[in-house]
Amino acid sequence: MVRSFVGGLELIVNLLKSKNKEVLASVCATMAKIAKDEENLAVITDHGVVPMLAKLTNTTDDKLCRYLAEAVARCCMWGSNRVSFGEAVAPLIRYLKSKDSSVHQTTAQALFQEPQQLHHHAREQSGQGPARYDRLHCRGPSGSSRWLCG
């Protein structure tokens, strides 16, 4: 899909620089939809979307949080994007304080993609220092289970 609209994609990516929360939420929702396709995800990654999304994570706007978390979750499924969102874990955790259940749902999906960074953040916040572990067991929103090597 995106391959035939590269010029339009550049315009959409540039909208991630907007100061308008409604525009940003709409662009994040669009990015989440585009990123459902692996080839599209590769293209938007090449356009620098990941660091732009990561910079937006310090928001408190529920609508933006919802769509931003969904975009982060989708983008984490490509290459090293998951690692690139490492610094976004702490702001994403704060999204769970929202009263909006749709924010909780998309945030859980994003955090599920970030198990190692989440584990490190939790240990640092609890004063236990850097995490040392052999394996971390995670259960996803669909009930799926996986082991991750540390």
Automatic annotation (TrEMBL):
SUPFAM superfamilies membership: ARM repeat (SSF48371)
Domain of life: Eukaryota
Family annotation (InterPro entries): ARM-like, ARM-type_fold, Armadillo
Region (Disordered): 115-135
Ranges: ARM repeats: 7-49
UniProt-listed PROSITE patterns: ARM_REPEAT (PS50176)
Coiled-coil zones: none
PANTHER family: ARMADILLO REPEAT-CONTAINING PROTEIN 4 ARMC4 (PTHR46241), OUTER DYNEIN ARM-DOCKING COMPLEX SUBUNIT 2 (PTHR46241:SF1)
Official protein name in the record: Armadillo repeat containing 4
Lineage: Eukaryota, Metazoa, Chordata, Craniata, Vertebrata
